[in-house]
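Please describe our next protein:
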Amino acid sequence: MSEDDDKKLPAIQNRLISAAVEIDQDDPLGIVYQHSLFCQVALPRSRPEGRVFERAYGNGLVRLEAGVLYNGYKMVEQPLPAGPKPRLALCHLNSEAVKTRCPSVEVDRSARKFMERLGLNTDGGSTYNLFKREMKALAACRMTLGFGGKEHPVTVDAKPIRRFEAWLAYDGGQATLWPGVIELSREYFDSLLEHAVPLDPRAVSALAHSAMALDVYSFLARRLFTLEKPVRVTWHQFHAQFGHEFKDWRNFKQRFIPALRAALVVYPSAKVEEVTGGLLLKPSLPPVHRESVAVSHGLAGQVRASLPSPPPVKHLAPATVEQFRKLYPRIDPHACKGDFDGWLEAKEQPRNYDKAFLGFAKKWVKGKV
């Protein structure tokens, strides 16, 4: 761990503890989703050398190839997606697609709000620029899966993003390509509705500093809920599945254990024990309950039943907006309304929309004023 990491550690620990307290006390105001594929197969954690990345485990292999994007004049090579940001980008795209049940995601209208929801910096600094860069890298890359063993090998082109519409934005006077609309491939979108794993956004936010911790949390969210009995997984098996960057499983374990502990802080219902040679995974409640449980099982009928058509758009009465501004003069009432509407998607619609909004606002503004 570097000196910079040592300086960040107290802030990271405080963020984990705060998230754990909130998760223990209340249900999440919203839900984010990850495809079960990416809960089992991790993207690169650091930028690989070259333009091809492969990760093999068991009878399966994943291959990523860096792609190109057209900037209006020429094709521009994009790097391979790596680190926490493409994981967050995937969560964002998945969540918007599941919420709207539409494969087209208007990124420019939603990405900044998504980052703000996770507590990430969106003031035009390095965090936002990195998020944009990794979004483009993810959109450009090609993904190929191989599985089935020698007797019946199968190859699947699993490129998640089919179409990428972008325009030039200007950051500090410099033109940069920024995604406007990203369209998921139909195959990926249909598979996502069958195999979306619900995650708690507060946990994702608390782990956003670490690709390894995000991978561990996503893996546990997918694996523990589907277990029927305890399963022992060795360090060699974890190394084969997640430790591509580490030649020795012992070095991998030194990095994996802190990430595991961080993930368990924000996944309190997870039942995981360290045993000789590995971990004992036990059947556990998922990190998010209610209608989202059906999604992680791949039950399409229940998924569609649990994700009803969005209610008609409602507007706040001018008097309600005025009352909100008097109570919380430094807070944008429309930002609160956006999160309130998202929270209502999984709830029974209130009889008095404005009264319910003001009740929601009391909890929503905590920590913001």
